[in-house]
């Protein structure tokens, strides 16, 4: 029984939203489940997929909160 956890940031891929849509979540679940079926021959009904949406302030990059890291990148022009 595989359990797959997908973590995505709540930063929207479109400017007008700040989370993954139910349709996108359904597509992620279907795609991951199909991948495990195709590669490992795990039945679809035996695969569990958990999607966690992470707030921007709850993740880091380069040893810093991501907002601070991005500020530093902007200052150096390394974007």
What does this structure look like?
This protein is of the alpha+beta class. It has a single domain, classed as 2-Layer Sandwich (Macrophage Migration Inhibitory Factor). Helix content is 38%, strand content 23%. The chain has helices spanning 22-40, 66-76, and strands at 3-9, 48-54, 60-61, 64-65. The strands form two sheets. Strands 1-2 form a two-stranded parallel ribbon. The chain is elongated, with a radius of gyration of 17 Å. The model has no long low-confidence stretch (mean pLDDT 89).
Q: What is the share of helical residues?
A: 25-40%
List low-pLDDT spans. Answer: none
What form results from the Cα inertia axes? elongated
Summed over residues and divided by their number, the pLDDT gives a mean of 89
Number of helices: 2
Instruction: Please identify the top-level CATH class.
Output: Alpha Beta
Oligomeric description of these chains? single chain
Strand segment count: 4
Report, as a whole number of angstroms, the end-to-end distance.
Answer: 41 Å
**Biggest β-sheet: strands ordered side by side in the sheet:** 1-2
Rg for CA atoms: 17 Å
Q: What is the name of the CATH topology?
A: Macrophage Migration Inhibitory Factor
Describe the sheet with the most strands.
2 strands, parallel
Find the structural class using helix and strand composition: alpha+beta
InterPro entries: 4-OT-like_dom (IPR004370), Tautomerase/MIF_sf (IPR014347)
Domain 4-oxalocrotonate tautomerase-like: 2-67
GO molecular function: isomerase activity
Family: Belongs to the 4-oxalocrotonate tautomerase family.
């Amino acid at each position: 029984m595989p359990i797959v956890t997908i973590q995505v940031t709540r930063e929207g891929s479109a400017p007008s939203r700040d989370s993954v849509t139910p349709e996108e979540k359904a597509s992620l679940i279907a795609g991951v489940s199909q991948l495990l079926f195709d590669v490992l021959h795990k039945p679809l009904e035996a695969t569990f997929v958990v999607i966690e949406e992470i707030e921007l302030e709850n993740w880091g990059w380069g040893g810093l909160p991501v907002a601070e890291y991005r500020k530093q990148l902007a200052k150096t022009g390394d974007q």
